[in-house]
Design a protein that fits this description.
The protein has helices at residues 2-17, 20-30, 46-71, 75-83, 88-118, 130-141, 144-173, and strands at residues 35-36, 39-40. The protein has 183 residues and is mainly α.
């Protein structure tokens, strides 16, 4: 168990402590440089490298968010559920995780919105995405302000839709939370 915790800690430390662009470059350009018997140990196309890197990066941040949200649930709730004879898995499923989901939803949603915007970094490893297309058109038509503004507007609209969805999900996960009402 200690070894697994050490591996997870190291993974989170690496991916939270280094820039996403550097991670993309290491996975796409660096890993193929590792050779065994003269052959690349791992050869990834740009899409695979992007998906793997974005997943690992987002997973590191999400794991800390989920760990923190589970830790935020007061210990007496665990103890009360155990006193009622519930198993650990039942306590997690029925008591802890529903509350942790409500606590972790805002930061997880923010991480997802950041991920959508961070996809523009994928152009650094040859993935053609919206920002790279706007760069190409800006160079072709000599109108960078308009084209970059259009790209920014599209990212803004995507972020706005995701923010609205986040708000709906927050309300849904809080449907059983009682609020104090003024008289």
């Amino acid at each position: 168990m200690r070894m697994l915790k050490a591996i997870v800690w190291f993974y989170v430390w690496i991916f939270r402590g280094t820039p996403l662009l550097v991670q993309l470059f290491i996975v796409f350009f660096g890993l193929p440089m590792i050779k065994v018997d003269g052959h690349a140990l791992l050869q990834l196309n740009a899409w695979s490298a992007g998906i793997i890197t974005f997943s690992l990066n987002t997973g590191a941040y999400a794991s800390e968010t989920i760990r923190g949200s589970i830790s935020s649930i007061p210990r007496p709730q665990w103890e009360a559920a155990y006193a009622l004879g519930m198993t650990r898995s039942k306590v997690l499923r029925r008591i802890i995780l529903p509350q942790a989901a409500r606590v972790s939803l805002p930061p997880l949603s923010n991480s997802f919105i950041s991920l959508v915007k961070d996809t523009s970094l994928a152009s650094g490893i040859t993935i053609v995405e919206m920002f790279q297309v706007s760069q190409q058109y800006a160079a072709l038509y000599y109108n960078p302000l308009l084209l970059y503004s259009m790209a920014a507007f599209i990212y803004l609209m995507l972020s706005s839709v995701l923010t609205i969805l986040q708000s709906y999900l927050e309300k849904w996960t809080s449907r059983y939370v009682q609020t104090s009402q003024e008289f």
